[in-house]
Amino acid sequence: MPLWRRIRQDILDRIAAGILKPGDKLPTTKELAAQYDTSGLTVRKAIEVLTEAGVLEGRQGVGVFVADPSGRNS
Q1: What is the spatial distance between Cα 64 and Cα 47, in angstroms, rounded to a whole number?
Q2: pTM, rounded to two decimals
Q3: Could you tell me the mean pLDDT of each successive run of 10 residues in the chain, 74 residues long?
Q4: Which residues have C-beta within 8 Å of that of residue 10, sequence separation ≥ 6?
């Protein structure tokens, strides 16, 4: 399994376990790359896929957050 898919699954698992909740900010790409011992490109791929699926949302200049499934995230 490609590393970006493992990162994606780990983020999904953390959300399912309640470790990451709607509105929580994810660490920076650089921090996640260090955590998973990979490149920023690999981390960005996982985040991109989760953003397209509506699981995460990027806020320009602010960061990446766990999306509120009810759509009421501020």
Answers
A1: 8
A2: 0.90
A3: 96 97 97 97 98 96 92 52
A4: none
